């Protein structure tokens, strides 16, 4: 099974360092959560791992190779970055089939992933009419199409109802139990506490923690530990102090 290795990765937009000499390894057989305040560089890091954004320096490797060096990328890493990235008039089935056909994957696998995410009954409906939960499920089916060893999901439970959140949690635990490398970002602390085994925490593009969840939560909730860790890394007030001067 394969690791994700991020080594001295940096990316700046103008003078702003989105990712700043970041190094960590994501290991197989467990769910690793990727945490950090808004703008900490999580999506940029994931995009560099997937070869969608070019690093200024450093490497992002899957199974020891850069994404553009992977012989069969869909078989090695499956990703959900933006669940809305589907042709709206195409059915779920045809969306998956088109991707399967261009990657040498058979129709049988399309049916398998539709079943895996519970979308068989709506597979012929236009993806543009899907609810957020259905779109997330289709995004996860897309990520799983190549039966990848590495699964990477950016905010997979964003906007999902409790049933959908529980389903994603069960699926990710199952995939890690099969020995896959599961890497996900989420801002939902309680959900992360229930889903992840390990955490990578970033702030202002830099590594703040690379730690087992059990260690991070040894003396309290993940939320408290997270706020303590990231307090210095946010550029906005962390406690709400209502400004009453405007109405006085
Ligand atoms: N294409 C881009 N052009 C300019 N700046 C960008 C671009 N992509 C990201 N950034 C900036 O890089 C920084 C890191 O953004 P990124 O989206 O990686 O953070 P994030 O941790 O995923 O945040 P969030 O939790 O809000 O999704 C931010 O300041 C963002 O504005």
Fold topology:
Blueprint lengths: L3 E10 L2 E11 L3 E6 L6 H8 L7 E6 L2 E2 L6 H4 E4 L11 H11 L4 H10 L15 H13 L5 E5 L7 H16 L3 E5 L3 H7 L2 E6 L2 E7 H4 L5 H9 L18
Parallel strand pairs: 3-8, 3-9, 6-7, 7-8
Antiparallel strand pairs: 1-2, 1-4, 4-5, 9-10
Helix pairs in contact: 3-4, 4-5
Bound molecules: adenosine-5'-triphosphate.
CATH first level: which class?
Alpha Beta
The total number of structural domains is 1
Question: Helix coverage percent of residues?
Answer: 25-40%
Helix/strand class: alpha/beta
Number of helices: 9
In whole angstroms, the N-to-C terminal distance is: 63 Å
**Low-pLDDT stretches:** 240-248
Summarize the biggest pleated sheet: 6 strands, mixed
Choose one word for the global shape.
globular
Observed structural traits:
248 residues; alpha/beta; Rossmann fold; 6-stranded mixed sheet; 4-stranded antiparallel sheet; 9 helices; globular; disordered C terminus; binds adenosine-5'-triphosphate
Structural commentary:
With 248 residues, this protein is an alpha/beta fold. The chain has a single domain (4-233), classed as P-loop containing nucleotide triphosphate hydrolases (Rossmann fold), CATH 3.40.50. It contains 9 helices and 10 strands. It has helices at residues 42-49, 73-76, 92-102, 107-116, 132-144, 162-177, 189-195, 213-216, 222-230, and strands spanning 4-13, 16-26, 30-35, 57-62, 65-66, 77-80, 150-154, 181-185, 198-203, 206-212. The strands form 2 sheets. A 6-stranded mixed sheet has the order 6-7-8-3-9-10, with helices on both faces. A 4-stranded antiparallel sheet has the order 2-1-4-5, covered by helices on one side. Helix 3 packs across helix 4 (107-116) and helix 4 crosses helix 5. The chain starts with a strand and ends in an 18-residue tail after the last helix. The site of adenosine-5'-triphosphate has 11 residues, from strand 2 and helix 1.
């Amino acid at each position: 099974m394969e690791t994700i290795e991020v080594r001295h990765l940096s990316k700046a937009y103008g003078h702003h360092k989105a990712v700043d000499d970041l190094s960590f390894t994501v290991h197989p057989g467990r769910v690793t959560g990727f945490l950090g305040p808004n703008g900490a560089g999580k999506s940029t890091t994931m995009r560099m791992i997937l070869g969608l954004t070019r690093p200024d320096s450093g490497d992002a490797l899957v199974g020891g190779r850069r994404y553009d060096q992977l012989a069969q990328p869909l078989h090695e890493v499956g990703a959900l970055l933006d669940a809305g990235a589907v042709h709206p008039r195409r059915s779920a089935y045809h969306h998956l089939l088109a991707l399967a056909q261009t990657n040498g994957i058979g129709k049988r696998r399309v049916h398998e992933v539709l079943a895996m995410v519970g979308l068989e009954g709506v597979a012929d409906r236009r993806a543009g009419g899907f609810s957020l939960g259905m779109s997330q499920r289709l995004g996860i089916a897309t990520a799983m199409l190549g039966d990848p060893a590495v699964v990477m999901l950016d905010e997979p439970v964003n906007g999902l109802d409790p049933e959908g959140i529980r389903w994603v949690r069960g699926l990710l635990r199952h995939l890690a139990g099969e020995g896959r490398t599961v890497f996900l970002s989420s801002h939902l602390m309680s959900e992360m506490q229930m889903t992840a085994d390990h955490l990578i925490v970033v702030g202002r593009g830099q590594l703040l923690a690379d730690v087992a969840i059990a260690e991070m939560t040894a003396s309290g909730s993940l939320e408290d530990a997270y706020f303590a860790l990231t307090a210095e890394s946010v550029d906005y007030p962390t406690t709400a102090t209502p400004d009453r001067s405007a109405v006085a």
